[in-house]
Automatic annotation (TrEMBL):
One of its GO terms (molecular function) is branched-chain amino acid transmembrane transporter activity. Coiled coil: none annotated. This is Branched-chain amino acid ABC transporter permease. It is found in: Cell membrane. PANTHER family: ABC TRANSPORTER ATP-BINDING PROTEIN, HIGH-AFFINITY BRANCHED-CHAIN AMINO ACID TRANSPORT SYSTEM PERMEASE. The chain crosses the membrane at residues 12-32, 44-65, 77-104, 164-183, 213-232, 244-263, 283-302. Its main location: membrane. Keywords: Cell membrane, Membrane, Transmembrane, Transmembrane helix. The keyword Nucleotide-binding does not apply. It is a multi-pass membrane protein. It comes from the Bacteria. Pfam families: BPD_transp_2. InterPro entries: ABC_transp_permease, LivM-like. It comes from Zoogloea dura.
Amino acid sequence: MTATVIRSTRGSQAVIAIAAALCLVAATLPLWGEPSWMREFVEIACYLIFAMMWNLLAGYGGMVSVGQQAFFGLGGYVMLALGNFGGINPFVAIPLAALVAALASLPVSKLAFRLQGGYFSIGTWVIAEVFRLSIANVAAVGGGSGTSLTALRGISRSTRENTTYWVALACVVASLALVYLFLRSKQGLALQAIRDSEVAAESQGVGVARMKLAVYVVAAFGCGMAGALYFVSNLRISPDAAFGVNWTAFAIFIVMIGGIGRIEGPVIGAVVFWALNKFFSDYGTWYQLGLGLLAILMTLFFREGLGGFVHRRLGFEMLPTRRILQLAPPAAPATASRLTPEVTA
């Protein structure tokens, strides 16, 4: 029997082509769209990137963190410090802030990786609180009340909003592309093997500790980039807003709605979360209760999320990362009449 490895389908190729076309159209939005549309997109982009990093960490790596807001807030504050005190353009400071967050994750991982399971989750939350309390005691950045981003004062509002939008679009496209390519690589297979069983993965030669550290650093980089982008758009930052556990709570909700362990999960979940927040946030406490109830219902009846539900019912997967082995039956042998000449009288 012959074997063929299937890594994509016509449907997934069509999705990629449509997404590329939409990105080209979206790049022209500042030329014809409303400023409010760009602000809405930047907010969705920040939630999407943060949720994507949490999904990479927990959904594919099996490391359920409740403290990724530590790197989100750190990215925001580093961007502000580079802009206000270092004289660096805040848009240029976004990748620099993400890099600082990634470097900060190295010593943090030494503490976090000493814990396992639920202790790891609580430990990351405690680490994020340490970050928040430390920043709240730094008077240069406003202490507990926060401060404003003054480095963009000389830039017109339209230029600032347009540039923020283009940077957000570039960050989203780059994050999706890099995560997708990573998960389709051998390292992506190793990461998913670690999620399923660290002992089994290590017995097959996978460097568990090295891979977990690499994913943790990459997730910290993405969270730092999302934080820097968010506060460039908001122009003001405070410890409670930057290091609030709500960021991780929202990321978990987004991934649960879209589908944990799926590339398209954070994309679907971010759109659903934005729509709920847009139309129902005015209901206050009832809105929060509704989100909680929706999360419970998804956990009970749609554990695979909306993306997984569509895949199960229709067999369609937007961005497949699995390798499917398709076996083909051997070719039929030649018949006897073809092998022996016909005898005639």
